[in-house]
Amino acid sequence: xxxxSTDLTALRERIVRHEWNQFQRTNNEGGRxxxxxxxxxxxxxxxxxxxxxxxxxxxxxxADLDAADHIGRNLVTEKYGRMMVSTAPIEYAxxxxxxxxxxxxxxIARQEHVIAVQVAWARDFRARWPRLGEAMxxxxxxxxxxxxxxxxxYLRGELGTYSxxxxxxxxxxIEHRKANxxxxxxxxxxxxxxLLHTVRLGGFAGLDExxxxxxx
Length: 216
What we know:
68% of the residues lie in helices and 0% in strands. The protein is an all-alpha fold. The chain has one domain (3-214). The longest helix has 24 residues, at 105-128. The protein is globular and about 45 Å long.
């Protein structure tokens, strides 16, 4: 591993740890959630996502986390709060919406375009690896319940916490992937790439092996 790769690895690990620290300060209705004590799974899932990001996007998001700490804002808490617009709308309107940054119409529209692309990619992934797909969240906001948050709603909550600079970089990454055909070394479908990193971090050689293991 060269110095550049080592540095990027350290940056990704620092971001995951920073998110974990914010996650520990996130209050959950009904008490502390079991996942808040599961560092190995948190690390695997979040690192898999950040392995798909390049340096400028990683650095911008790291700066978002630092800026949030500086002003007493918790991006992980806010992410879960934003999801409640679908899963608990009355409570969201009463206890969350007045206290988080409001997104303007242009930002919302741009986010929805990104979300539509990623939901389509996730649907495609689930069609090709159905057993792994079954282990994922439900796909669309229409499937949300008070006890189950969809991939679409989770993504909408997360994107809403990004600064304008970070979101612009994320948006550009998605548009670049959409515009270019997939190759063996750089899958266009970011869900596929994220899940590939996830299963490799879990000890599997690849998606086919992990899919076959789900049958057991």
